[in-house]
């Protein structure tokens, strides 16, 4: 089984991003992901990513 990647918000709500090789180069970056979202009680929340883009840095 390969690596798993997810995005999360400040409240630690996580969404897995698939395929992993599409998101792997962006580990540690703030990104915008577009794709198909799905949810299943046994699998959780998943986005099948069509595109990943680095977000501009924003002051908080």
TrEMBL record:
Q: Which domain of life is it from?
A: Bacteria
Its recorded name reads: Uncharacterized protein
């Amino acid at each position: 089984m390969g690596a798993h990647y997810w995005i999360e918000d400040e409240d630690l709500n996580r969404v897995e991003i698939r395929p992993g090789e599409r998101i792997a180069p962006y580990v540690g970056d703030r990104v915008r992901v577009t794709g198909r979202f799905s949810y299943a009680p046994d699998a959780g929340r998943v986005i099948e990513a069509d595109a990943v883009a680095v977000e501009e840095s924003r002051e908080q």
